[in-house]
Automatic annotation (TrEMBL):
Database matches in Pfam families: BPD_transp_1 (PF00528)
InterPro entries: ABC_transporter_permease (IPR051393), MetI-like (IPR000515), MetI-like_sf (IPR035906)
Keywords: Cell membrane, Membrane, Transmembrane, Transmembrane helix, Transport
Gene: cebF_1
Region (Disordered): 1-25
Main location, first listed in the record: membrane
Superkingdom classification of source: Bacteria
Protein name according to UniProt: Sugar ABC transporter permease
């Protein structure tokens, strides 16, 4: 007698779950996750150390030494270079020129940029083409801009004097008087940077909620009132940002007045429009090749810019805190 004793086996269509082997994270993978962010930002800090921090420190060291390109390093002199610069009337003349050019170029520039941005913020045809067009002056070679404006403000055959004579005014010697030269250089600076600042303002304006304008319109507010009561307060941090950038750029103004004077760093016959940056170049490379004194002027300019930047930064923080309350 036989017995049919079956061996228990797996049911048809079902399989036992297979437990995957534990994953092992390699040591290289852990290091990659831990240090990869630092590797990504390392090129910036490397470039900043080479082209930013090192020149700043080296300039500070040079400013404390008597050093010329012809005589070499003649030893440590402490703050003698700073004392000679601060007691030099020429230094205060170029400081006044720099501040004057900064004010008469920056204030109209930012006001005009705000007006252009408000106009571009409306619905219109070819809006993208217009936005691209106003940025063209900023991407144009500054050398080309200097040559063109040098011809426009030429004393004898310039376009500016031709227009003045057409309406009955006498021609102007643009490079021999302080205010005329400042005006010509301000035109050059404003032509380059107004469109750039206008696009920055436009980006800020487009972030303002449209509901605020609609509510103000229902309450009977005019377009001008909506602009001053809604737009300007809400983009105030952006306005202060452009003021900071314009301040830094205005204090370092060099290329425009240099090209306006046909490459001469004196800034006119009586230094009418010589800026601090031009004075640094003249002291270091054109007048006795005094590297130590040029470095001292550079550090004084850096401190002036730093003070203005800190003041503007404090104003920005105060504005942001006032809006968040």
């Amino acid at each position: 007698m036989t017995s049919n004793v079956g061996v228990a086996g797996p049911r048809h269509g079902r399989r036992d779950p297979v437990t995957p082997p534990p994953r092992r994270t390699s040591r290289f993978g852990k290091l990659d996750i831990k240090y990869s962010p630092y590797i990504f930002v390392a090129p910036f800090f490397l470039l900043f150390a080479v082209f930013g921090a090192y020149p700043l420190v080296y300039t500070a060291v040079l400013s404390l030494r008597k050093n010329t390109l012809t005589g070499g390093d003649q030893g440590f002199v402490g703050f003698e270079n700073y004392t000679k610069v601060l007691t030099d009337e020429h230094f205060w003349t170029v400081i006044g020129n720099t501040f004057g050019l900064f004010i008469i170029s920056t204030v109209p520039q930012l006001v005009l940029a705000l007006m252009i941005a408000s106009w571009l913020n409306k619905k219109m045809r070819a809006r993208t083409a217009i936005r691209m067009g106003i940025l063209i002056p900023n991407i144009t070679s500054v050398a080309a801009v200097g040559i063109v404006f040098g011809l426009i403000f030429a004393d004898r055959y310039g376009l500016a004097n031709w227009l003045l004579q057409t309406v009955g005014f006498d021609p102007v010697e643009w490079r021999n008087h302080r205010w005329s030269s400042w005006t010509a250089i301000a035109f050059m600076v404003d032509w380059r940077w107004t469109g750039y600042n206008a696009l920055i303002y436009l980006a800020a304006m487009q972030a303002v909620p449209k509901e605020l304008y609609e509510s103000a319109s229902l309450d009977g507010a005019s377009a001008m009132r909506r602009f001053w009561r809604i737009t300007v307060p809400l983009i105030q941090p952006t306005i202060l940002f452009t003021v900071i950038i314009s301040t830094i750029g205005g204090m370092q103004l060099f290329t425009e007045p240099l090209l306006f004077n046909y490459g001469r760093v004196q800034g006119g016959s009586l230094n009418e429009f010589q800026t601090v940056a031009m004075y640094i170049y003249e002291t270091t490379f054109s007048n006795n090749f005094n590297v130590g004194r040029g470095a001292a002027i550079s550090w004084l300019l850096f401190l002036i810019i730093l003070i203005f930047a800190l003041i503007n930064f404090a104003l920005v923080r105060r504005s942001v805190k006032g809006q968040t309350r």
